[in-house]
Specification:
The chain is α/β, with parallel strands linked by helices and 294 residues long. It has 3 domains: 80 residues, Arc Repressor Mutant, subunit A (Orthogonal Bundle); 96 residues, 3-Layer(aba) Sandwich (D-Maltodextrin-Binding Protein, domain 2), CATH 3.40.190.10; 104 residues, D-Maltodextrin-Binding Protein, domain 2 (3-Layer(aba) Sandwich), CATH 3.40.190. 36% of the residues lie in helices and 23% in strands. The chain has 11 helices and 15 strands. Strands 7, 8, 11, 12, 13 and 14 form a 6-stranded mixed β-sheet that branches. A 5-stranded mixed β-sheet has the order 4-3-5-15-6. A hairpin with a 2-residue loop joins β9 and β10. α1 packs across α3, α2 crosses α3 and α4 packs antiparallel against α5. The longest helix has 15 residues. The radius of gyration is 24 Å and the shape is elongated.
């Protein structure tokens, strides 16, 4: 049974979007607020608040409880019973996914998840901008492991990745084939940046076991992988992408891989999210699906 003394703690957090501010408002310690919210969640077996070191927001169950707290007491009791009764995955699952996560975005993974979980609506935003997924309203994200915040929990999607330098045969016939990464400064390159006003991505290599990177000055820069590949296929220059993204074009011969000996493997893509305790069934279902997919 719910301890009604916990509801003012929850309401303060819901309105302040910050544990410290809620504690100051109520005249208690931040620890008391955190423990109170956790106790309320444990009683009902579901997360009410998504929190990271950077932000706090309500889950769908938390939003329903917040709305119910402005209702008559009988409706509040009904809402408290309902938030713990959701054992089957349901609701909207919002995920921010980097545009280069081919395994996640290729179709089959999401199609089979949707078929297995008819009560879940999946809302995918494809974006390469890095930011706090919780404050932005997402339940989870998919990114390369090296750019995920350390306080997040991660589940691998696929294995290691390798980058690939590539160009069309027509470009190489006219301009020659680079034999070392440093020769790229003499070539027309097609670069990638995640967002406007962000410097183009540095191309990273290893030579004799020593890593180094080059600040390529691309003649063409974009945040669209498809445009990069299409321009390279048209003979527009040399570009860099993940190996799995260019494999179909290499197999047909429209692109030629270059400098492979200088391109090491690195950790791949991960589904990431802020907490495990009292996790919403819809997110748990996706995590289990990704684990089976591997």
């Amino acid at each position: 049974m719910t301890d009604l003394n916990l509801l003012p703690l929850f309401l303060a957090v819901a309105e302040e979007h910050n544990f410290r501010a809620a504690a100051d408002r109520l005249g208690v310690t931040r620890s008391a607020v955190s423990q109170g919210i956790r106790r309320l969640e444990d009683i009902h077996g579901t997360a009410l608040v998504m929190r990271t070191t950077r932000s706090v927001r309500l889950t769908e169950a938390g939003e329903r409880l917040r709305e119910a707290l402005s209702s008559p007491l009988s409706e509040i009791a009904t809402a408290l019973e309902a938030i713990g009764a959701e054992s089957r995955p349901s609701g909207t699952l919002r995920i921010a996914v980097t545009s280069i996560a081919e395994a996640f975005l290729s179709g089959p993974l999401l199609a089979t998840f949707a078929a297995e979980n008819p009560g879940v609506t999946v809302d995918i935003t494809v974006t390469d901008e890095e930011g706090d997924i919780i404050s932005a309203g997402y339940d989870a994200g998919v990114r390369l492991g090296e750019v995920i915040e350390q306080d997040m929990i991660t589940v691998a999607i696929g294995g290691e990745q390798r980058e690939a330098i590539t160009a069309a045969p027509s470009y190489l016939e006219l301009h020659g084939t680079p034999l070392h990464p440093r020769e790229l400064i003499h070539h027309r390159c097609i670069g990638w940046r995640p967002a406007p006003n962000v410097a183009p991505y540095r191309w990273e290599f290893v030579d004799g076991g020593v890593p180094f990177s080059l600040a390529i000055e691309p003649r063409i820069t974009t945040n669209d992988l498809r445009l990069m590949l299409r321009t390279a296929i048209a003979g527009g220059g040399i570009t860099l992408a993940l190996e799995e993204n260019i494999q179909p074009y290499v197999k047909t011969g429209v692109l030629v891989p270059l400098l492979g000996d200088f391109l090491p493997a690195f950790p791949g893509f991960y589904l990431y999210f802020p907490q495990r305790r009292n996790m919403a069934p819809k997110l748990r279902a996706l995590i289990d699906h990704v684990k089976r997919w591997k």
